[in-house]
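hi! just following up on the protien thing from before. the input was this:
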Amino acid sequence: MIRRVNGASSVFRVRQKVGKYRIERRLGEGGFAIVYQAMDTIEGLRVALKVPHPKLVNDDVLRDFRNEVRLTAKLDHPNILPLKDANFIGDHFVIAFYLGERTLSDRLRRRMALETALDYSEQILEGVAYAHRMKVIHCDVNPDNVLIFSGNRLRLADFGIAKVAQKTIQGSGTGTVGYMAPEQALGRPSAKSDVFSVGLLVYRMLTGQRPEWPYDWPPPGYRLLRRKVDPELIACLRRAIDLNPRKRFRDANQFLGVFRKAKKRTLRCAAERREKRR
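and the predicted 3d structure came back as:
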C-alpha cells in the first residue's frame, strides 16, 4: 500500500536524472518503497518509478524479485498492469510501471454511479480471475493498487511485488489492513484471500463504506446496498466477504461468474426504476 506524504526524505530529487528517467515529482511512500512520477526521456512517456528503500534490498530480496518477475511476466491481461522495467540504476533498485491517470483510492473520494461501480468491479474481478487461472494470487488487492487509465480502463498493479514487499517487511502474513482476509493475517493466503479483498472493495464502491474488522452481517452501508442492487448481488457479496474461507467462492473465477449474472439483474432493475419515475 502506498500512502501520500509531505515533507519526508526522498531517495531522488525533483528534476534529477536517473538513468533514462527524469524525476518529476514524488507520489508517495510505503514501508517498502518510495514512488515517483518520472519522464522516460527515450520513449517520451511518463512512468511510475517504485524505488525500494535501500536498506531492504539484499540478495534474498533480489532472488525473490527474480522469481516473482518470471512468474508474473506471463500475466498478459488488459486489467493487469505489466511491469515495464526492473533494474539497478547506480546503487538503487528501480521498478518502472506505466503511469495511470489516478488510483481507485483517489476516485473513491467522490460518489460513484451504480453503473461505474459495477463496471469497475467487473474489471477488477476479470484481472484477478485471469491471474488465478494462471495460478498466481495477488495478496494485496486494495484501492491503492488499482490504477485508472484513459477510457476508465482499470489495471491491477503490484502482482508479485506486493508479495515480496510483504515478505521483506513483516513476513508472509501481511497485507493492507482493512482488506486483508483473516487467514492471510495468520500467514495462510490463498485465492480465497483475494476473493475476500475484492469483495470488500466492491462493497465499498457500491456503498461508500468498508466494513471494519471485526464485523457482523449486515455491515455498515447495508441499507443503501439494498436500495441499489438486486438481492442476488447482495448474496454474492456476502459470500465473498465471509470470514470463514470455506464459505467463500473458491477463487475469483467462480466469484466473477456469479457476479456477472447478478450485475445484469441489478442493471435491469435500475433501468426499470428509472422508467417508473418518468
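The domain at 17-98 is CATH 3.30.200.20 (Phosphorylase Kinase; domain 1).
Residues 272 and 278 are 10 Å apart (CA to CA).
cheers
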